[in-house]
Amino acid sequence: MQGILNKNSSQATEKKKIEIMGMPLLAFLGVATVILGAAVRGYLPSGI
User: Fold this and answer.
1) Among 19, 26, 37, 41, which is 20 to 30 Å from 10 by CA?
2) Cα torsion at 28, 33, 34, 40 (round to 10°)?
3) pLDDT per residue as tens, the chain (48 positions)
4) Is 29 helix (H, G, I), strand (E, B) or coil?
5) DSSP reduced 3-state for 30
6) 5-42 burial by CB neighbour count: b if 16+ within 10 A, else e?
7) Rounded distance between C-alpha atoms, residue 37 and residue 28, angstroms
8) Keywords assigned by UniProt (predicted)?
9) Backbone angles phi, psi at 16, to 5 degrees
10) Does the pTM exceed 0.85?
11) CA 13, CA 19: separation in Å to the nearest integer?
């Protein structure tokens, strides 16, 4: 009985971990995209 409970709880923990890690990853990608876009715009001549 204890083994079944542990297996279920560890699966739920893994799923939560992935969700928690996924959020900052999306935020980081969004921020990185904005920073890269600003940097590219800053380096390119204004005519482009």
Assistant:
1) 26
2) 140
3) 555 555 666 777 777 776 667 778 888 899 999 988 888 888 766 655
4) helix
5) helix
6) eeeeeeeeeeeeeeeeeeeeeeeeeeeeeeeeeeeeee
7) 14
8) Membrane, Transmembrane, Transmembrane helix
9) -65, -40
10) no
11) 10
| Residue indicated by tokens 């560890």 | 10
Site of tokens 């001549």:
45
Q: Cα separation of 20 and 4, whole Å?
A: 24
- For residue 26, what are its two tokens? 């999306």
